[in-house]
Amino acid sequence: MKGTVDVKLEQFLYSLYEERIARRLPPQTIPRHVGVILDGNRRWAKSFGEPAATGHRRGADKIADFLTWSEELGVEVVTLWMLSTDNLHRPAEELHALLSIISDAVRELANEGRWRLRVVGKLDLLPDDLARDLRRYEESTRHIDGLHVNVAIGYGGRHEIADAVKSLLHTYDEQGLSLADAMSRMCVDDIANHLYTKGQPDPELVIRTSGEQRLGGFLLWQSAHSEFYFCEAFWPDFRRVDYLRALRAFSTRERRLGR
What we know:
Blueprint: H1 2-23, E1 33-37, H2 41-47, H3 52-73, E2 77-84, H4 92-112, E3 115-120, H5 128-140, E4 147-155, H6 157-174, H7 179-185, H8 188-192, E5 205-208, E6 227-230, H9 240-251
Parallel strand pairs: 1-2, 1-5, 2-4, 3-4, 5-6
Helix pairs in contact: 1-9, 2-3, 3-4, 4-5
Subunit structure: Homodimer.
Family: Belongs to the UPP synthase family. Z-FPP synthase subfamily.
Protein name: Isoprenyl transferase
C-alpha cells in the first residue's frame, strides 16, 4: 500500500511540475516545427532483457502521445525520424520486425483521423508492399487540416539533398535549359523547393533522445538554423515533462540567425 501511495504522490508532484513549466512558456516561443530523432528503443529493450522488437513497439506506442502534446502546445509541424537509410543494413530478422512495426504505427496514426501525414524518405529502398501501404496511409489523411506530421522512413539527409538536386535538374531539363543555364540559375531557394519538406517551415527545434549528441543525417538542409536539444531518456521513456523541458530550453535561446 505504501508503495502505491508513493507512486501516486510522485505522479501528482510531476503533474504540478509539468503545469508549472507549461504556464511559464511564452506562447511566442513555441516552435512551429519540431523534429525528433526517436532514439534508444533497442537500448531500452536491452535494459529489460527484452528483444529489440519490444523496444520498437514501445517506441511506436509513444508517438501518439507526443503528437497529442504537440497539438496542445501549438506546434504546427512535427517530423519523426522512424527509420534511417543506415537502419536498412540491420540484421534481416530485426529489420523485418521493425518494418512491420513501422507499418502498423503509421496505419494507426492515419486511422486516428487527427493528423495529416507526409511520408518522407527513399521509399524505393523499402519493400514494394510497405511503400504502397505508406503512400496509401498518407493519401487517406490528405483532407485533414490538423497537425502536419512527417514520418521519415528510409530517410537520410544526404539522400534528400541529392534527390532535391536531381528533381530540380529534371525541371530545368523539361524547360529546355542547357547545363550552363541551369548552373547559372540554380540557387538555394530552388533546391529548398524540391526537398521532401517543401512548403513547410524549417524546424526551429530538433530533439534527440537517448543521450546521443549528433544529428546522424537528420534534416541536414533544413536544420541549418535549428536549435538542438539532447535528452538522456530513451524514446520509450520520453515524457511530457521532457518535452516541456526541451521547449523551456528553446525559449531561452537567442535566435539571431547570423544577424
